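Task: encode each sequence below as structure tokens.

Item 1
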Amino acid sequence: MPDAASPHRADTASGKVGLSKVAARAGLSEATVSRVVNRRQGVAEKTRDAVEKAMAELGYERPVRGQLVAIMMERVTNPFFADVAERIEAALAPHGLRTLLCPAFPGGVQEPAYVDAMVDKGVVAVVFLSSSNTVAMARTRTYERLRLRRIPYVGVNGVFPDGVAVPVYSTDDLLAAELAVGHLFQLGHRAIGMASGPAGNTPADRRVRGFLEAMDRRALSDAHRLVVRQSFGVEGGQAAAQTLLARGATAIVAASDFMALGAIRGVRRLGCSVPGDVSVVGYDGSAVTEFVEPPLTTVRQPADRLALEVSRSVLALAGRREVPVGELLFDPELVVRATTGPAPGRA
């Protein structure tokens, strides 16, 4: 007798493949096939492989309606990540999928614990939204557990360690730095500083690399001295700005909007003005940056396009359809507002 939790039988008259056909092809009971389809524990690896093979041969698609997609994210307070998560949820909801937000922040419940708790709860895919996939030398236990249970996953803004071949959707951080530096250079700034996140964070490292390359293209020497690594957030931006001003910077490229807001606060606490004395460019493009005073010039990540591609990928993977692996880069957009102006003396 099939499990009570087994999916509804497909209508054989419609040409769709039901559990009975998969069970017959695999030479197993429908109850066993149901446990594999629903990714239940207690199934031997050899048996699971036989069912997966039969499903692939017959073109059986797992039903996904009513099941969960877990979104792992570290910075739940960052408006950009919240926006992407909300857009993913909106795109998946019409297909009957529900999203579950998993804040795997430092010191809290970590990703392996979430995976252990969710694998038997109908999770069909996991989205790593700038979480462990952004950390160099991240532990691979989470990914190994997902692969063992055949739960697909995708990444946003960070590739996975050990060359794991999965879909990743990222903003082009090198282009983002070029847009910010190019804008400030056109305004006459030459002592341009970079306030970035900690070393070992993939987006932060990429933004620093893009910054240094953009400065080098303009023959601006000593750029390394004008890079300050700090924590992501307002406090980190403030500390970085005060260091950069002491080193003579007249403009600051921040690695996040929050760091940019902190940089503005740091500039003001030193008795300087934005943009009269120091120009500041943020990164992310959170909606709130339009309403701060002065409105923040920023490099906007394409949250809408990122979320759409992630959602398409999740739907395909949940249905056991192939999705191109590797990293797909999306172009950011420079949004010029009121925190950037001519370099001092060039107005």
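Item 2
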Amino acid sequence: MDLLNTLVDKGLRRELPTREEALAVLATSDDELLDVVAAAGKVRRQWFGRRVKLNYLVNLKSGLCPEDCSYCSQRLGSKAEILKYTWLKPDEASQVAAAGVAGGAKRVCLVASGRGPTDRDVDRVSQTIEAIKEQNDGVEVCACLGLLSGGQAERLRAAGADAYNHNLNTSEVTYADICTTHDFSDRVETVQQAQAAGLSACSGLIAGMGESDADLVDVVFALRDLDPDSVPVNFLIPMEGTPLAEQWSLTPQRCLRILAMVRFVCPDAEVRLAGGREVHLRSLQPLALHLVNSIFLGDYLTSEGQAGRADLDMIADAGFEVEGTDTTTLPDHRTDLVSVRRRGAGTDLAPNA
């Protein structure tokens, strides 16, 4: 296909495809699917070889969120039957993180429900980051605490955080359809605050919320404009007790097309297969490894993931290898850019220096 040859050439040069080309990927037929996967796989291998980065999620605080995001089981008014608890202590969180690191995780993602952290919350998370770093050599720590206010990103960076996650989730024009308690620009601003503080930005999307192909392309192009180092792609798990409980619209084939489109638009970024992969990709999960270079190991926030041993077997059986802590995930040009941002923020120092 001329389309795929063009997209491969652009991806190898880190050149942005057109919106029409991105839409065309989503419109390909099932007969063309393996060709699409093979083409995006060439771009993935150019920048990341056959390495797969493992990430492990630690839920620091669950439930009782004042925001009304329609997809979330922790939302305001949610009737979903989930575990609710307040903040884990730093030593408790560190023990949970150690289990993921022992299973091969290179990055620990610290997540807390809520609109955004208070300064006291940032103190708690900072202590947790320090405890994890002290007990696990070489591990990366990413914080995901919601909307940030002035100076909080800098404090997290000073405590040793490597990255900050805040997803855009869906297109700007449809954002109000899934959330009314904050808007798209609030999310963009938080990602920019993290970057300005010298943190590696992690920002992605949720597919399967009833969006159109144009919405998917819009949010991925918005992400490309922000240029995060990591782009997690979540597939909605419709949870009982939430407004999107009946939104079952994804097929394994559509999920693969979405991942391929993200790879073409963000060729040299860490594309992470995140929530919902087991539910929606099912037996086609190994094919997704040709598109993404990063996955979560184990469970998610309020839903169970595939067993860690099964993930490791899947990676090996598909001919890929787990990325070690002694390997730099990002290509050299991106690693250099992160270093420049940190120096520009005045934070290219050891924690608490």
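Check on item 2: Residues 119-135 form the longest helix (17 residues). The first strand starts at residue 51 and ends at 61.
End of task.
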